[in-house]
Amino acid sequence: MTSTMAGKGDGAHPVSAGLGRDLVGLIRSLILTGAITPGEKILPKQIQERFGVSHIPVREALRALEAEGLIVTVPRRGTTAAQVSLGELREVYALRRLLEPPLMAEAVRLRSSEAAAAAQAARRRLAAESAADLDAFLARHREFHWALIQPAVQPVGRRILEQLWVVSERYVRMSVAAHRADVKAAHDHDTLLEAFVSGDADLAARETVHHLDLVESTIVEALTPDLS
């Protein structure tokens, strides 16, 4: 598939050649929002020109995004945005169901009064957003779930969760606005917060499973005609 990235967006967005993480975030955003479509060829030269950087930070950024599962590089064929599929979706949510419910239960047991207050504030910020502004909603959604699970997560676990959440977000963005997953999930969010604040670890674990099931089924319902 021919790359059309150079013609997308509002023109160049220069970044410092030393800010590799910024470049990773910028390219990641293009993939997650669909500005770079699944299977689209990604040309390093176009990235250099678009963001005003040299080939070294581009190469490092593409390596980081490949580790996240968002791009694929094949020798002599180049780099493309990773395809999306029901198989990948199922695998990601199966892994999340293995990891997140016990972590949520442990987070409830470890929570402090400060953590409970932070989670309540994050829930209020999430409630103020809707899928009509998808970027803002997903930022607040991620912030809320991180506030809940953070007490139990160590650095290695955080890296694993962040990778799963990034891949999940790609699918959520393809479905959430049309199927109003923000409205469907509101009760789950309230129940998760209640369990966290009240110290009910069992409820937190059960509701995490329910929430993941709900989000996955909503995505499948929205995307089954398009994915295989």
How far is the N terminus from the C terminus?
A: 19 Å
**Share of β-strand residues:** under 5%
- The tally of beta strands, per DSSP, is 3
Compute the CA-based radius of gyration.
Answer: 19 Å
Structural class: mainly alpha
* Main sheet characteristics: 3 strands, antiparallel
The spatial strand order of the largest sheet comes to 1-3-2
Share in helix: 55-70%
Q: Mean of residue pLDDT?
A: 87
Low-confidence runs:
6-12
Order of helices and strands: HEHHEEHHHHHHHH
Number of DSSP helical runs: 11
Shape estimate: globular
Question: What brief labels describe this structure?
Answer:
228 residues; mainly alpha; 4% strand
Account of the 3D structure:
The protein is mostly helical and 228 residues long. It is 67% helix and 4% strand. The protein has helices at 20-32, 44-51, 55-67, 86-110, 113-127, 134-149, 155-173, 176-179, 181-184, 186-198, 201-223; strands spanning 41-42, 71-74, 78-81. Strands 1-3-2 form a three-stranded antiparallel sheet. α4 (86-110) runs antiparallel to α11. The longest helix is centred in the middle third of the chain and has 25 residues, at 86-110. Mean pLDDT is 87; it is low at 6-12.
